[in-house]
Amino acid sequence: MPPVFPMLTVLSMFYYMCLRRRARTATRGEMNSRRAIESNTRALPINVEIVQYAKEVLDFSSHYGSENSMSYTMWNLAGIPNVYPSSGDFTQTAVFRTYGTWWDRCPSARLPFTRTPSTFCSQDYVELAFEEPVYPTAVHILETYHPGAVVRILACSANPYSQNPPAEVRWEILWSEAPAKVNGPQARQFTPCIKQINFPTNLIRLEVNSSLLDYYTELDAVVLHGVKERPVLSLKTSMIDMNDIDEDEDEEKFACGMDNLNKQFNIVTLREWPTNGYFDKLPYELIQLILSHLTVPDLCRLAQTCKLLYQHCCDPLQYIHLSLQPYWARINDTSLEYLQSRCTLIQWLNLSWTGNRGAISVSGFSRFLKVCGSELVRLELSCGHFLNETCLEVITEMCPNLQELNLSSCDKIPPQAFNHIAKVGSLKRLILYRTKVEQTALLSILNFCSELQHLSLGSCVMIEDYDLIASMMGAKCKKLRSLDLWRCKNITESGIAELASGCQLLEELDLGWCPTLQSSTGCFTNLARKLPNLQKLFLTANRSVCDTDIEELAANCTHLRQLDILGTRMVSPASLRKLLESCKDLSLLDVSFCSQIDNRVVLELNANFPNVFIKKSFTQ
């Protein structure tokens, strides 16, 4: 009988390799998921665990609340819980700007970028700073209403409170999962099984996807557990899931591919291959079509296989539409430099979320646009905190064909810098949500950019006279189809009248949380009569909306698809029935906190109009 010792040695080595892989990549999945490995790793020696709430909210992409208030803002995530374990809609929580798929079904919806990797599904983010840097052992997220939006948790190597910024900023994914539907809106403590990392952190980032939610998700607090000394994994590990090993390998390949952006995009000499196989027999166009389905990291790897595929992977036609947002953590000046020669024909570019903490410099961004900006039609720069006046000046000079510009939450751009946008007369879409654009610059933009069709001015707090802005829109922007005036504080019936008279092509209008509009002035009736093409109308938190307004909408705006009248006390069930009977395309009706619309009425309306999502929020 042959000895068994060699076989035992092989098995031991395989088990050791599995442990090493587990130490590097850990697991993903919710605490109750089968795929969450029950590793029970124990630190040797034992450290005292530190438990801390977020000290400060450093950055975020959007929030429901106002810039001058605490209600429904991301700043509520700092400190101890305000609401948990209670469930319901509370102003003391953190709420993002959107939920569900409603924003993708309205006239202002933008076409998605192709080639977005399936592993990236994040729509919003928030970054939280903690007092003490620790090696994380657990992250608890206290969700108080419609949980299930968090899809990724990351840790950063940079200490936001350090006087000496690091030469290199690293982000590591602690946990990641695809969006999943959670049954019920009740509060919960979400504690996914996180990966162990090799650096201490006091900067945690949550990324969310609210597309499967029936209403806004509300977060109350985040708790970081960790130890001061780096844990050493013990060998006592139970139950390794082989499926998890395969998925971890995919993650390693993904990270490797992104590193290639900086290291291997500029390979000039390739190993000599005697043949390119069957690819030599395929038409050039067919190979291009096949490669068009690959992500950017896949193109990086494929370019290293042979000269023929290197040529295809570097063809500027492969980069007509390019989104670097999924790789925001690894994009820097070097990445842009290596991409320059491949992006000479680029038309759509998404740099949202990239470049922060010094990763992209003003000079690096300017060099890239000077080479690649001439054909740009669409430029997405949401949350680009490296942007300044020089960057906007370069955009307007180097991108003469630009039609769409997204500067959402670019709150570091100085007010006077927005004057440069007026030079881009071809603009059709401009998103200035949560920016510091001031009135003079905006008036100049409206005067010279008469082709505008979509304009977002939500939460722009530095505009003193919205009536003047609305008057200019009515006079100059005749092609306007969608307008976001969310939380505009001073527009009155005069501005609404000018807007409705001049912009009669409007299909979407957001007047949510505009407290100076009163139904008694006839402003909403005027809107309904002048704007028959309306498909989306948000009158959120306007308590003066009444039956007359709803009946005017029913009579004049029969194409209406989405209506938000949250908070009104003056609308009766009878007027809602008229609206639902008249507007056959209506799919969303938010009557949360409408005092005359109780749960019994909602159930009745749901039964009679099953194709309409009727939302009634609650507070316990």
Describe this structure in words.
There is one protein chain. With 620 residues, the protein is an alpha/beta fold. Among the domains are: 179 residues, Galactose-binding domain-like (Jelly Rolls, Sandwich), CATH 2.60.120.260; 140 residues, Alpha-Beta Horseshoe (Leucine-rich repeat, LRR (right-handed beta-alpha superhelix)), CATH 3.80.10.10. It is built from 15 helices and 21 strands. The strands form two sheets. Strands 10-11-12-13-14-15-16-17-18-19-20-21 form a twelve-stranded parallel beta sheet, covered by helices on one side. Strands 1, 2, 3, 4, 5, 6, 7, 8 and 9 form a nine-stranded antiparallel beta sheet that branches. Helix 8 links the parallel strand 12 and strand 13. The N terminus is likely disordered. One of its GO terms (biological process) is SCF-dependent proteasomal ubiquitin-dependent protein catabolic process. This is FBXL4 protein. It comes from Cettia cetti.
The N- to C-terminal Cα distance equals: 73 Å
- How much β-strand is present in the residues? 15-25%
Class from secondary-structure proportions: alpha/beta
| Mean pLDDT, all residues | 88
The total count of helices amounts to 15
> CATH H level of the domain at 49-227: which superfamily?
Galactose-binding domain-like
Gyration radius, rounded: 27 Å
Largest sheet, if any?
12 strands, parallel
Outline: globular
The percent range for helix content is 25-40%
| The CATH class of the domain at 49-227 | Mainly Beta
Strand order within the widest sheet?
10-11-12-13-14-15-16-17-18-19-20-21
Q: How many strands in all?
A: 21
Q: Unreliable segments (pLDDT under 50, ≥5 consecutive)?
A: 1-44, 234-254
CATH architecture of the domain at 49-227: Sandwich
The CATH topology of the domain at 49-227 comes to Jelly Rolls
